[in-house]
Structures are given as C-alpha cells and as structure tokens.
C-alpha cells in the first residue's frame, strides 16, 4: 500500500518490489578467468556470452565476514566473498586454484581501486618504504598462460592433469597446518623420546599421504594400451604402485604449472641513498596476499 507522509512524499508501507533496487551495487569490472571457465563442474559457474564474469564491490556484510578468524582459516570467508562479489560463480569451493588470486584481486579492485600499497625494506637498509602496486596490470598478466594438461616425457603413458579445486587446496592446507602444529608440540613438549618418535612417524606418514593424495587428485585420466582410465580407485592404485620416476615426472609438471600461474615478484628500482648503503640497483619483492592485509 502507498501512503503520503506530512511532506507529501510517497511512503511505501506494504511489501512488494523494492523501490531501492535500482540503487543496489552494480558491476565495477569484468574479468576473464585464467582457466577460461574450464574444469568447473556443471552448474557451478555462469559466464557471459563473451566468457567474462561481472565483479561487484564488497558489501559491509562481506567486510565483516573477513573478520571471522575461523571462517578465514577454513576458507569459508573466501568462498562467501567470491560468491557475493562474483555472482556468476555459484560454488566457489569448486573454483580451480589458478583462478583464486585473479578473483580476489578483481574484488579488491572493485572495492578499493586499482592501487595497493605494499611496504618493503630495501637490502642494506632498515627503513621501510612504501610502493604502489598496480593491481589492474597484475590482473591483466594472470591470463597470459595456458594450463598444460598433458604431462610430457612419460613414454607409453599419456597423463592428463587439472588444477586442484579451492576445496582440495584448503583441505590440504588445514591438514598441513594441523600436522605442523603437532610437530611443534612434540618438539617442545616434555614427552618421552619413544613417544616423540612415534608421534613424528605418524605425522610424517600423514603429510606423505597428503602429498601423494594431492597429486592423485590432480590426475584426470591415464591413457595406455588404447585404454583411457578415469576411475579414481584405479588411478590411486596405479600411483601407489608405479615407478618413482612416473610419480616424480607428474609432480614436477604440476609444480611447474603452479609456478607458471603464481604471482611474480615485484621488481623495485633502488633509490640513490639505498644504493649508497649497499642496495643493488634493482631488487625483487615477493607479493603475498592474505585477507589480513589484502582487504584492509
């Protein structure tokens, strides 16, 4: 029902179409994912006809989500932020790992602008300096490389791989975190030597199994003898019993693809006073993003 207040302005008093909807946030930019939308399970992504995705700025609720420690640790906060700001992604847990950084960078650009200040300490100096990192330029470089699915140099075997999903990556990270914590407890605690050795052995085995599991999960298929094997149990059984050379070749290829799609260090030009103090003319600074500084 529509009523008029004392000033003669229209006042909406009944539920219906929200008259404020046209003032809701609008897309701030459009991006092409490094994966080009490949490896997403059916129903987990809806791209525009040209293959792009619309990116919105964060809401106040999104920023509050980033202040929940448990949600940050288990990845839930990142999932909620991506699905809120990139509505074309319906299930962020299924996002290939090579797309995560691009999505977070795009969301930061949409929310805070293209530049982000990073603080570094030049070699030979104790004074911190601040540099403006152009995130748009960084984002534009992230789609330049194709993910090579075919593992080379495996003789009769033709192995295809894929990037791990954000869910798989987060689960592995949580497991590694817990095992490293156990290492510290065993190392620092007042524990009998025999118990220490036992705990170290168990922890080492878990980390070993985790590493092998991550490699196995990355394998899509193995073709040999006119057969293409995709059964997960068969692939797991093969990796567990294949020659070490086969596992090492697959692992090396996965690591190379990971490095290829990783964010490259920032090249910095030293100031004259820093060079006088022993700094090289140029040096590189690793770019590390996390929720504590990336969305500050």
Describe the structure.
The strands form 5 sheets. The protein has a 4-stranded antiparallel beta sheet with strand order 7-8-9-10. It has helices at 60-65, 69-74, 76-85, 97-112, 135-141, 166-188, 193-218, 232-241, 244-261, 272-276, 291-294, and strands at 2-4, 10-12, 29-31, 53-55, 115-120, 129-134, 150-151, 158-161, 219-224, 227-229, 266-269, 282-285. The longest helix has 26 residues, at 193-218. The mean pLDDT is 84. The chain is α+β, with helices and mostly antiparallel strands. The two termini are 43 Å apart.
Keywords:
11 helices; two-stranded antiparallel sheet; 12 strands; alpha+beta; 4-stranded antiparallel beta sheet; 296 residues
Mean pLDDT: 84
- Estimate the helix proportion, in percent: 40-55%
Helix-strand pattern, N to C?
A: EEEEHHHHEEHEEHHEEHHEHEH
Shape: globular
Taken as a percent bin, the fraction of beta residues is 15-25%
Structural classification: alpha+beta
Rg computed from alpha carbons, rounded to a whole number of angstroms:
25 Å
Spatial separation of the terminal alpha carbons = 43 Å
The counted number of beta strands is: 12
Individual helix count = 11
Strand arrangement in the largest pleated sheet: 7-8-9-10
Low-pLDDT parts are: none
Largest sheet composition: 4 strands, antiparallel
Summarize the structure.
The chain has 296 residues and is α+β, with helices and mostly antiparallel strands.
Secondary structure: elements and pairs:
Layout: E1 2-4, E2 10-12, E3 29-31, E4 53-55, H1 60-65, H2 69-74, H3 76-85, H4 97-112, E5 115-120, E6 129-134, H5 135-141, E7 150-151, E8 158-161, H6 166-188, H7 193-218, E9 219-224, E10 227-229, H8 232-241, H9 244-261, E11 266-269, H10 272-276, E12 282-285, H11 291-294
Antiparallel strand pairs: 1-2, 3-4, 5-6, 7-8, 8-9, 9-10, 11-12
């Amino acid at each position: 029902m529509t009523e008029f207040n004392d000033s003669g302005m229209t006042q909406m008093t009944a539920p219906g179409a929200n008259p404020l909807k046209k003032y809701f946030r609008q897309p701030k930019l459009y991006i092409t994912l490094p994966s080009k939308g490949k490896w997403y399970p059916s129903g987990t992504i809806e791209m525009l006809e040209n293959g792009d995705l619309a990116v919105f700025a964060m809401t106040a609720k999104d920023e509050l989500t980033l202040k929940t420690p448990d949600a940050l640790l288990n990845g839930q906060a990142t999932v909620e932020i991506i699905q809120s700001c990139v509505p074309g992604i319906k299930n962020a847990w299924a996002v290939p790992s090579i797309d995560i950084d691009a999505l977070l960078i795009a969301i930061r650009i949409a929310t805070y602008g293209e530049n982000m200040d990073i603080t570094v300490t030049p070699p030979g100096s104790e004074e911190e300096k601040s540099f403006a990192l152009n995130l748009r330029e960084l984002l534009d470089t992230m789609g330049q490389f194709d993910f090579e699915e075919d593992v080379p140099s495996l003789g009769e075997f033709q192995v295809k791989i894929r990037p791990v999903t954000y869910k798989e990556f987060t689960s592995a990270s949580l497991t590694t975190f817990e095992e490293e914590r156990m290492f510290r407890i065993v190392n620092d605690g007042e524990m009998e030597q025999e118990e220490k050795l036992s705990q170290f052995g168990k922890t080492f085995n878990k980390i070993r199994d985790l590493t092998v599991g991550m490699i196995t999960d990355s394998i899509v298929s193995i073709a040999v003898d006119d057969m293409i094997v995709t059964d997960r149990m068969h692939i797991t059984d093969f990796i567990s019993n294949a020659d070490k050379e086969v596992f090492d070749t697959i692992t090396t290829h996965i690591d190379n693809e990971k490095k290829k799609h990783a964010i490259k260090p920032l090249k910095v030009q030293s100031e004259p006073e820093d060079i006088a103090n022993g700094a090289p003319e140029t040096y590189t600074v690793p770019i590390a993003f996390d929720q504590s500084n990336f969305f500050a």
